[in-house]
């Protein structure tokens, strides 16, 4: 698969994740979660942390639309071609990933906010059995579905954009199904919101 297009200088943002800002929005369940506490402690246990970089890709530098078919935990088959016409957010995660737990409340809030505007969210779970994934979703009140990607099929299709060990990673797809933005590592709610709004305005 071809390497990702290089974004223009003005479209690339690299910064350290603002931990205090991220923690301020945590729900009570996340605040008391031992793995979330581990992420805040910076121990980097049980996951490979992203570098905190945020990249926006200019329209003329985006790769072709993503192409894959994956299976949700309820057995439903979903083709990426169904994303066309909507902004789509893909969040790569697994339950024992500490920063995934820290960012879950922000993902819930944003999915609730943008669902009425036609923005679609999907998780891509790389490790967990159905019961473990569903327990995580119930704990954090996530209502959007996740792909069961233990076989790495979705990850492989996006290998030019998602480093195999960098979890969490979040992609924003434009209305043509092309990657318009990427967050490597724990996301900042306000940053992801701005990236979604930017893609939706195109």
Automatic annotation (TrEMBL):
Main location: other
Signal peptide: 1-30
Domain Thioredoxin: residue ranges: 57-201
Alphabetical list of InterPro entries matching this protein: Redoxin (IPR013740), TAT_signal (IPR006311), Thioredoxin-like_sf (IPR036249), Thioredoxin_domain (IPR013766), Thioredoxin_ResA/DsbE_sf (IPR050553)
Highest taxon listed in the record's lineage: Bacteria
Compartments where located: Cell envelope
KW GTP-binding (keyword) present: no
Keyword Cell wall biogenesis/degradation: no
Residue ranges of coiled coil: none
Pfam families to which the protein is assigned, alphabetical: Redoxin (PF08534)
Keywords: Cytochrome c-type biogenesis, Disulfide bond, Redox-active center, Signal, Signal-anchor, Transmembrane
PANTHER family cross-referenced by the UniProt entry: THIOL:DISULFIDE INTERCHANGE PROTEIN DSBE
Protein name listed in UniProt: TlpA disulfide reductase family protein
Species for this entry: Sinomonas terricola
